[in-house]
Design brief:
single chain; about 260 residues; 7 helices; globular
């Protein structure tokens, strides 16, 4: 069970996190009248300041590995998805980041309007195959304009250590975009678990892996990409669990595989 100190720090962080978000939403209002780079600058600063806040309050450090492997120009970034953390933390490494997200998020006052201003791709999940075709076309067009598509190939957050569930849609996007794809492994689910307000101390690791070149056969891509992510993720999860065992004792206060 988490200690009272971790519980209190988590509570304080969550309150501070949303206050900080409200601050950046207000500061970003002038960007409605600016080109896209304005709102992207605000988003990147929000991400950096949120990371700093988590370290200050929760003693959660961050280690980035393989930054030198990130190619310049248009790119697909295929990241493991365990937490809300990576949705804002990865922004800072790319000039023109692009996300695919639920259309309903764009309906949120102010925040959703920022998503539209940043030209993010909203999809109607209820539309089925038609939504997938529209998403792939939109992603192809934006990447060909020089943007970096940050995509979570499993489609949704999965608990740290859960059985992987990669979707085939990323293979179609990769085939049409004809750009490199850099896989990203991480262990964020141990420190910012999904469906929980708890935030744990330790070291978040984000590892950018060797890029996959454009033009691979789709089946080969859909084998190599998840293999690379899962191999590295399992390694850094094991390291993080050992770190948490040193901090908390034999049993670290982290969620199960469910």
């Amino acid at each position: 069970m988490p200690s009272a100190s971790i519980f209190v720090r988590s509570l304080i962080f969550n309150i501070a996190f949303y206050i900080l978000l409200a601050f950046w939403v207000i500061v970003g209002l002038p960007t409605y009248l600016m080109p896209r780079w304005g709102i992207l600058t605000i988003a990147k600063n929000w991400g950096r300041s949120s990371i700093w806040l988590m370290r200050l309050i929760c003693n959660t450090k961050v280690e980035y590995r393989g930054l030198e492997k990130i190619p310049k120009g248009p790119l697909i970034v295929a990241a493991k998805h365990q937490s809300a953390w990576e949705t804002f933390a990865l922004l800072q490494f790319f000039d023109q980041p692009l996300y695919i997200l639920k259309r309903e998020l764009t309906w949120i006052p102010l925040f959703g309007w920022y998503l539209l201003k940043a030209d993010m791709i909203g999809i109607d999940r209820a539309a089925g195959a038609r939504a997938l075709r529209e998403m792939v076309r939109a992603a192809r067009d934006e990447v060909r304009r020089g943007r970096q598509l940050i995509i979570f190939p499993e489609g949704t957050r999965r608990a740290a250590g859960a059985e992987p569930d990669y979707k085939p849609g990323v293979g179609q996007i990769y085939a049409l975009c004809d750009v490199p794809c850099i896989p990203v492994a991480l262990n964020t689910g141990l420190f910012w678990p999904r469906r929980s307000f708890m935030r744990y101390p330790g070291t978040i690791v984000v590892e950018f892996l060797d890029p996959l070149p454009p033009g691979l056969p789709r089946d080969e891509f859909l084998t190599r990409m998840p293999d690379a992510i899962e191999t590295a993720t399992n390694r850094i999860l094991q390291d993080a669990r050992e770190e948490q065992a040193r901090l908390f004792g034999a049993v670290a206060p982290v969620p199960s595989r469910g």
